[in-house]
Amino acid sequence: MATHAQRTLSKETPKLIGKEIVLKGWVHKRRDHGKLIFLDVIDRSAVIQVVVNPKVSEESYKIAAELRPQYVVEVKGVVKKRPEGTVNPDEKTGGIEIEAKELKILQKSESLPFDIELSDLELPTLLDNRSLTLRSAKARAIFSVQAAVLKGFRKAAKDLGATEIVVPTIVSGATEGGAELFSVEYYEHKAFLSQSPQLYKQIMVSVFERVLTISHAYRAEPSVTTRHLSETTQMDMEIGFVDFSEILDIFEKVAVSMLTYAQEKCEGEFKEFGFEKTSFGDIPRLTLRQAQEIIKKEFGRDTKEDKDLTPQDEIDICKWGKEKHGSDLVTITHFPTVAKPFYTMPDPGDSGYSLSYDMLFRGVEIMSGSIRITEYEQLVKSIKDRGMNPLDFGMYLMAFKYGMPPEGGFSFGLERVTMKLLGLQNIREASLFPRDMERIDERFSKKTSAKG
Amino acid sequence: MATHAQRTLSKETPKLIGKEIVLKGWVHKRRDHGKLIFLDVIDRSAVIQVVVNPKVSEESYKIAAELRPQYVVEVKGVVKKRPEGTVNPDEKTGGIEIEAKELKILQKSESLPFDIELSDLELPTLLDNRSLTLRSAKARAIFSVQAAVLKGFRKAAKDLGATEIVVPTIVSGATEGGAELFSVEYYEHKAFLSQSPQLYKQIMVSVFERVLTISHAYRAEPSVTTRHLSETTQMDMEIGFVDFSEILDIFEKVAVSMLTYAQEKCEGEFKEFGFEKTSFGDIPRLTLRQAQEIIKKEFGRDTKEDKDLTPQDEIDICKWGKEKHGSDLVTITHFPTVAKPFYTMPDPGDSGYSLSYDMLFRGVEIMSGSIRITEYEQLVKSIKDRGMNPLDFGMYLMAFKYGMPPEGGFSFGLERVTMKLLGLQNIREASLFPRDMERIDERFSKKTSAKG
Asked: What pLDDT, on a 0 to 100 scale, did the predictor assign at position A224?
């Protein structure tokens, strides 16, 4: 192999004034100023300004004149303080620049079909050109924040004593009883993609008491909305020996801690793109009925026959929560038992309602959960009552034959959390490679015509 | 809801001698000693001894006499030092015991069908009763170690400046060109389960330069071996601006750091079950040809026509590595180009071989990777040479049109790492709910007969 020069990251350069270094990265912008060419070069740590002066290196100047955005380059040069008046205090490397002595092209790039940094690119453009548009500063910010949300969730869960588990996604039946399942040809058998890690994380309560899992969930939703994907990332916890009031405290704490972590970790991204920090205030807790009363009183819609909140209800309740409680988060509890999956514990005082909860964030549900039924016979009955066959739940039910403590859990949707935290208009912007009815990477319609 | 007593975890009790506390957990063992009943109660933190004396609480004694393993209980009692001579220095709580004042059954358990702690339970028994056998001390140890391996990998990757990404598992085609794909009915379209996060993590090098991802990979292997699963967990990194020699250093560092982290974090589990700590020594690096020469010389088998190592070769080379280099890990490089996927970079000096590498651990491959082709035209040609259609790789190829740096990556299999780290005989023991040809939770044969 060719020998490689020891590389310096952009963010390290301010400490190296006067030193000769080697940078590697992508050309972000080129500006020709009379006899000088200025390059913004980007690597994983920061953007940095490179000055190419033909008096310093004529060869480099010739090469620099060829460069276009996304060319991959190696620059040998000297770190210099920027002249007075050209310092940019908003950038990590805003006080220095690199005077190029040698410039090498590591990889050329075709001309970009459009400016990927434009803020008003339409969603189909963003997605049809995903491998390119993900390189924009905004996309980089979105997915840096997403990585921090993931880490923030895991940190919050581990602080609560949870053990991380890995659960399978190929399953033999519906966990939630719904019809929106993708089927898989599994050798000679029919199998499905999991709708949630629910049954497995519950089983694992009897092993580790408190567990967390990051998993993919699949829903064959035959609709195209701004907040549904066919494949999502779920951040789940399941916790033994808790009651309803304890778990409400726990998930609110996890939400605050996860969002706070992401905001602090990505301070720079929030500042650069004006992402609005979350107002935590005093998180209101409403039963579904209380929420419906507020909707009637404050927004004039009678929704009391509904078994769930509609998207508009969620928007309105969050508006109310922000105004009255200074909180971007609202907890809704006690959904009707019939509207919830079989494992949901009915409220012992009023069995038509259940010990279930959702968390809303700026108008969208980002989390769902409940206290679970842990009595074997009651669980079998609940499965039968919903027209399902307990034989299809053999492995799961076994856990309840042998001593399951009172327990509950919850699941945050990573893409929804990311979307609402950053004020994105469509959940597809919060997924690197979103899956929906119309697309797996490329649009189906486009693919057919390209091949046809 | 019922009021709940403030709960103390077992491991906190040694600091609370003389205090009254409330424990919650599972009955692990009951021993009747004349007028006393001793209970081993287990919670997420530790096992603890509870003494039930009818002179202290007759009611508790009656309840204790009913208890069997896996009953879920709540114990109110006083923390006492154990009498001289009964201290168990091997346990966290071995110096104390709880004198029960009140005992409550939170959930009963059926009688266990067999002793789940037996060390010689057969694999079908372990798997047919997974929801129960996962509660054994050994299973708990295995999956505590697995959680630490995951964390150790993420820590090592983050220390290298990688950003965590989430990639989809529903894909439109084969990434590796193999035929072992599970197909999915995706709305009106045919889709597949991903064989690896390969193409997506490569695309993301152009965004974050260094990425890590934990993902599920699916292989429809029509065979049943001790080291294959249909659904596995992969720990991947992909790194821009590296050459062959650098990435060899990087993945060896990641392996050592990940395994060391898990061993240190799970010191107690390693001690309790006599899991053998890894010998790192000086990790040997061999080309496939060199490995084949050693196999011929030391083990008398001529394998030089083979394009890969056989399972026996892997065992033999690891035996050699342990004896000659004191290392449980061996790196093998330069597999034949034709035997590797299209994205693998041929060795510029000898294009019949490639800049690829596997890592072996105690006789089994646990990692695979390569330097990638990053030149657009070369990549298109490599796809065509393997009889595939570049049109099926549109989104992926786009990343290479717009400046991809030299890059490479690798993928560790979580279950294989766990299996070899703990000396397990079968990979199924290293997966909570293993998927293979014969089973999704329950064996297909069993299921059919139960329903028929």
From this structure: 86
Q: What is the DSSP string of A253-296?
A: HHHHHHHHHHHHHTHHHHHHHTPPPPP-SS--EEEHHHHHHHHH
Give the start-to-end residue ranges of the domains of chain B: 10-107, 135-431
Q: Is B210 a catalytic residue?
A: no
Domain A10-107 and domain A135-431 have a common topology: no
User: B402–A24: do the CB atoms touch at under 8 Å?
Assistant: no
- pLDDT in the model for residue B158: 97
CA distance to partner chain B, nearest, from residue A88 (Å):
24
Low-confidence ranges of chain B (pLDDT < 70): 1-5, 175, 177-179, 446-452
List, for chain A, all residue ranges whose pLDDT scores fall below the cut of 70. 1-5, 175, 177-179, 446-452
Q: Is B438 noted as a catalytic residue in this protein?
A: no
Of A2, A401, A451, nearest to B110 by CB-CB distance is: A401
- Looking at the complex, report in whole angstroms how far the Cα of residue A18 sits from the nearest Cα belonging to chain B: 25
Structure tokens at A186: 């599994």
* Statement: B135-431 belongs to CATH 3.40.50.1820: no
Among partner residues B164, B230, B244, which is closest to A150 by beta-carbon distance? B164
Determine whether the interchain pair A134/B204 forms a contact, defined as Cβ–Cβ distance below 8 Å. yes
CB-based burial label for B229 (10 Å; 0-12, 13-18, 19+): buried
Supply B322's token pair. 């342990």
* Candidate from B45, B183, B431 with C-beta closest to A185: B183
- Closest by CA position to B429, among listed B121, B149, B150: B121
**Who's near A348: CB < 8 A, 6+ residues apart?**
none
Sheet strands side by side (includes A189-193): A170-171, A189-193, A183-186, B183-186, B189-193, B170-171
pLDDT tens figures, B354-399: 999 999 999 999 999 999 999 999 999 999 999 999 999 999 999 9
Q: Do A432 and B109 touch (CB under 8 A)?
A: no
Q: Are B403 and A26 within 8 A, CB to CB?
A: yes
Architecture of the CATH domain B10-107: Beta Barrel (2.40)
Angle, in degrees to the nearest 10, between helices B288-299 and B311-325: 80
